[in-house]
RNA sequence: GCCCGGAUGGCGAAAUCGGCAGACGCAGCGGACUUAAAAUCCGCAGGCCGCAAGGCCGUGGGGGUUCAAGUCCCCCUCCGGGCACCA
């Protein structure tokens, strides 16, 4: 026992006390854990009829193996690890896996730079990061590790691809694609941010025409949208972002017949292009040319106000029209150029509207009028039908365009009030008028209908007459998955002269990525330069075939990796559906908000595809999602260019893994950004030292004592009360808010209370049984946040068994309850005094105590108490005059 | 432009349901221990006035509701994120 007699508290025993030395404790436990490969292994699903423990699948997003963990990772994993350990202690069967998102461009860049093969580079990075994770003491079951760049994994990407191909969900078409010159590959729309590459913020994305493989995400657009309503375990922010991304809009498609130019009236044929600024009435000879233009509109109710059609420069009909009109071709060329430029610079919203009249007319199927057909740079070829009816009076963009070119405006919708009193005021000042809570005018048989009703009726009318119908348009596109890269999953397709596109037979999977491929900066797929890879045999006819040389987008890998964890070594299927049925959905998924749309929409899509293949029963991959905040330093995101990167290795070397992890939880609530301050880590480390010394000082008392003591002596009562209040707080937080910062603060407070009783503990005034309870529970409460020190102290207390499976402490409301309360007393809302009353005191007692208080008595002297407000257990407010 | 967050001491933050603003920690100051330092321990600590008792002010700004507002309502400023010619 250490000398502890000083009147100055614990001052004197410090000198000869054991020091907290994480550099010694942590590697030792790391070895002990490493020697038990099953330590973090989940139990198998119970057999039918058996009732096992409840399952809990906690998952953190798998990292890209860059070679170095950064603080964002540490924070992400500290959250997941605390939760996993807590759930273990709560008696759950926990699946807590980790893997590597191991394909991707940086490996090729590294190959170029250091002449290291991508595979070697990647695998050595994985080894390095795995060491860091182990050093952090994270509770992953490495027996379920998934590495996406290994054939054992990516063969199932290929297998899924073939299943999708067979179901028509994977298809090939030529399309304009986003091309990043830096990556020398195609990017999905999702990977283009303000016209720039998501990996290269300074690189403008170009448009190229290429044959590409697509997955039909649009088949699931509606379901992906509807599913969001049920995902109440996901942050509203993420759901909103996905809703915006899917971008559903209801409207109608309407076909406009093109007028045969030969039937235009004689006198019109000499008109200049400005003829195109006015709607012309139908004439007897009007005849359709056979060409049709479909437009998509959300405001079919305004169709009588349409005064032109506007085509996207890339619209199919524009090609026909320009073929016979060189002057037009030249002008359209300019429009395309403007649009391209705007898209590349990301200023699509700010581009100056330009357009050109084609000289042709289309016939409005509702009014039979002839509308001039234009080509305009503000119309997008890849949304809706690539053509619109322009209603300048009721659409801001059309209004702006029409004003510029002097195109006619026609008011067909007005506020109810205006229509009902038939005012003839200057209605033009209203324009553009876009409200839908309005009535139709100048719209033939549809006059006086409300907009919304008119939309339904007019769509029905269009359908009846065969030139349109109500329809829904989505912003979400099919997922382009082809990449002209080496380091990815080969797309398992063959091209045969005779049989066309043929999938690689399943028994020939995986299509192995050839190991020795020269990586160069020239464009096109590196695999195309490997004849042994390209040249294959057609499985149908046995003749020569050419292998697809593109690889898959790496978001394919991460779309289903978490299913593989449940059955990582399966060599005959991606996974055993029974295992997935047991573990899914993921109970808690944790990662950065930056994946709110890309990864998380693709994953939701993939899950539905697997469901429709009969492999899984769940619709959604994850029941709950948590998005943690960024780690910043000095107000800015950590980045090499800013030079404010803090290395986890440094922190661990200086303060230990426990302190580093715990600081990541302590410095801010997990959903908010965290400002990394090294002094704060030192503070947490000091706290752990205090805990360590406190437990070591009294461990001898606790060792061997197993009493359940609930000590009735005053000292025990006070200490146990604090203990049970703390258990209650942390237990409730794990089940709800996840404010681990205040959980750790609560443990600090508790330890402060305990150390203040140091002498009473040493002297025996606090019974040994109480001491044992305090120390044991302190260690248990620390276990999810600081596993090393917790295990060390658990052993020092002589406790048997694995701390990971030790039951989480139960709180006892009776013990947590205060028997006396301090009740603030306010006068007119201002604090004037505090009185102590019994916890169960009734309102009268509290009032009397307040009025009897000396300070209060003095303050209300000569005044009238108008009202007394008593909030039981909270405060008293006296309203005085 | 639209939609979400956020703004609280010197700093990170707390206040979960409208009820003592600033828990916990960092940095700081004073003290103990020490030949000295480190480590540790004890104490002080929102601002202003005051020897003190105490008083006044205070949660980005302005208004409001209430016995009582960081918290609810209206208006505004700044910061961060998402979407943005999507017909």
UniProtKB/TrEMBL annotation:
One of its GO terms (cellular component) is cytosol. A motif ('HIGH' region) lies at residues 63-73. InterPro entries: aa-tRNA-synth_I_CS (IPR001412), aa-tRNA-synth_Ia (IPR002300), Leu-tRNA-ligase (IPR002302), Leu_tRNA-synth_edit (IPR025709), M/V/L/I-tRNA-synth_anticd-bd (IPR013155), Rossmann-like_a/b/a_fold (IPR014729), tRNAsynth_Ia_anticodon-bd (IPR009080), Val/Leu/Ile-tRNA-synth_edit (IPR009008). Pfam families: Anticodon_1, tRNA-synt_1, tRNA-synt_1_2. A motif ('KMSKS' region) lies at residues 637-641. Residues 29-247, 477-676 form the Aminoacyl-tRNA synthetase class Ia domain. Its EC number is 6.1.1.4. It catalyses: tRNA(Leu) + L-leucine + ATP = L-leucyl-tRNA(Leu) + AMP + diphosphate. It is found in: Cytoplasm. The keyword Mitochondrion does not apply. Keywords: Aminoacyl-tRNA synthetase, ATP-binding, Cytoplasm, Ligase, Nucleotide-binding, Protein biosynthesis. Residues 285-461 form the Leucyl-tRNA synthetase editing domain. Its main location: cytoplasm. GO terms for molecular function: aminoacyl-tRNA deacylase activity; ATP binding; leucine-tRNA ligase activity. Residues 717-842 form the Methionyl/Valyl/Leucyl/Isoleucyl-tRNA synthetase anticodon-binding domain. ATP binds at residue 640. GO terms for biological process: leucyl-tRNA aminoacylation. Belongs to the class-I aminoacyl-tRNA synthetase family. This is Leucine--tRNA ligase.
């Amino acid at each position: 026992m250490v000398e502890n007699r000083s009147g100055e508290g614990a001052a004197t025993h410090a000198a000869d006390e054991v020091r907290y030395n994480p550099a010694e404790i942590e590697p030792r436990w790391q070895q002990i854990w490493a020697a038990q490969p099953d330590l973090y292994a989940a139990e198998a699903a119970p057999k039918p009829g058996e009732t096992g423990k409840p399952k809990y699948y906690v998952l953190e997003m798998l990292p890209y193996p860059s070679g170095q963990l950064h603080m964002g990772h540490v924070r992400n994993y500290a959250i997941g690890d605390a939760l996993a350990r807590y759930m273990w202690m709560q008696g759950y069967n926990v699946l807590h896996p980790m893997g590597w998102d191991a394909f991707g461009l940086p490996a090729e860049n590294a190959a170029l730079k250091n002449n290291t093969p991508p595979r070697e580079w990647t695998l050595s990075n994985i080894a390095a990061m795995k060491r860091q994770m182990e050093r952090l003491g994270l509770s992953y079951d490495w027996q379920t590790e998934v590495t996406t760049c290994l054939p054992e994994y990516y063969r199932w990407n290929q297998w899924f691809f073939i299943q999708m191909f067979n179901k028509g969900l994977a298809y090939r078409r030529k399309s304009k694609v986003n091309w990043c010159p830096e990556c020398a590959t195609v990017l999905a729309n999702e990977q283009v941010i303000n016209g720039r590459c998501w990996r290269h913020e300074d690189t403008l994305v170009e448009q190229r025409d290429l044959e590409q493989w697509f997955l039909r995400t649009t088949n699931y657009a509606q379901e992906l949208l509807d599913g969001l309503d049920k995902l109440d375990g996901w942050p509203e922010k993420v759901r909103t972002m996905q809703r915006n991304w899917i971008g559903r809009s209801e409207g109608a498609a309407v076909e406009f017949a093109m007028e045969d130019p030969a039937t235009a009236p004689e006198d019109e044929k000499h008109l200049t292009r400005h003829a195109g600024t006015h709607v012309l009435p139908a004439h007897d000879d009007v005849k359709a040319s056979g060409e049709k233009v479909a437009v998509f509109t959300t405001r079919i109710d305004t169709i009588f106000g349409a005064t032109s059609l506007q085509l996207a420069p890339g619209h199919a009909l524009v090609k026909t029209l320009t073929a016979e009109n060189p002057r037009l071709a030249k002008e359209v060329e300019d429009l395309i150029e403007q649009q391209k430029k705007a898209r590349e610079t990301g200023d699509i919203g700010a581009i100056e509207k330009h357009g050109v009249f084609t000289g042709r007319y289309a016939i409005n199927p509702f009014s039979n009028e002839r509308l001039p057909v234009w080509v305009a740079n503000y119309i997008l070829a890849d949304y809706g039908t690539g053509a619109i009816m322009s209603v300048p009076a009721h659409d801001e963009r059309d209004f702006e365009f029409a004003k510029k070119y002097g195109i006619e405006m026609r008011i067909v919708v007005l506020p109810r009030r205006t229509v009902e009193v038939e005012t003839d005021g200057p209605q033009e000042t209203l324009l553009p008028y876009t409200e839908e809570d309005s009535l139709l005018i100048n719209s033939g048989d549809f006059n006086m209908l409300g907009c919304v009703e008119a939309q339904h009726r007019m769509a029905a009318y269009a359908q009846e007459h065969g030139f349109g119908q109500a329809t829904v348009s989505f912003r979400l596109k099919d997922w382009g998955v082809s990449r002209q890269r080496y380091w990815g999953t080969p797309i398992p397709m063959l091209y045969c002269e005779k049989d066309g596109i043929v999938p690689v037979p399943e028994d020939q999977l995986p299509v192995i990525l050839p190991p020795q491929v020269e990586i160069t900066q020239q464009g096109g797929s590196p695999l195309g330069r490997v004849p042994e890879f390209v040249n294959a045999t057609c499985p149908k006819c046995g003749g020569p075939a050419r292998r697809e040389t593109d690889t898959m987008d790496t978001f394919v890998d991460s779309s289903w990796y978490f299913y593989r964890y449940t059955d990582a070594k399966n060599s005959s299927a991606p996974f055993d559906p029974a295992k997935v049925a047991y573990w899914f959905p993921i109970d808690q998924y944790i990662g950065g908000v930056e994946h709110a749309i890309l990864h998380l929409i693709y994953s939701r899509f993939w899950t539905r595809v697997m469901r429709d293949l009969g492999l899984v029963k769940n619709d959604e991959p994850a029941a709950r999602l948590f998005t943690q905040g960024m780690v910043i330093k000095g107000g800015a995101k950590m980045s090499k260019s800013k030079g404010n990167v803090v290395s986890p290795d440094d922190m661990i070397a200086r303060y230990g893994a426990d302190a580093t992890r715990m600081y990541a939880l302590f410095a801010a609530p997990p959903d908010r950004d965290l400002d990394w301050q090294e002094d704060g880590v030192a503070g947490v480390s000091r706290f752990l030292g205090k805990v360590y010394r406190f437990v070591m000082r009294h461990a001898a008392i606790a060792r061997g004592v197993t009493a359940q003591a609930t000590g009735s002596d005053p000292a025990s009562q006070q200490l146990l009360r604090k203990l049970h209040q703390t258990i209650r707080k942390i237990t409730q937080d794990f089940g709800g808010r996840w404010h681990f910062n205040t959980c750790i603060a609560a443990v600090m407070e508790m330890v402060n209370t305990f150390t203040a009783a140091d002498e009473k503990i040493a002297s025996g005034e606090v019974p040994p049984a109480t001491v044992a309870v305090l120390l044991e529970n302190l260690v248990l409460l620390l276990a999810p946040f600081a596993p090393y020190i917790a295990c060390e102290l658990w052993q020092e207390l002589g406790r048997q068994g694995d701390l990971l499976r030790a039951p989480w402490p139960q709180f006892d409301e009776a013990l947590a309850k205060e028997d006396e309360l301090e009740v603030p007393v306010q006068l007119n809302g201002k604090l004037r005094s505090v009185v102590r009353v019994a916890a169960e005191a009734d309102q009268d007692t509290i009032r009397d105590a307040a009025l009897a208080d000396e300070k209060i008595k003095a303050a209300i002297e000569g005044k009238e108490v108008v009202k007394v407000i008593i909030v039981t257990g909270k405060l008293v407010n006296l309203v005085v005059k």
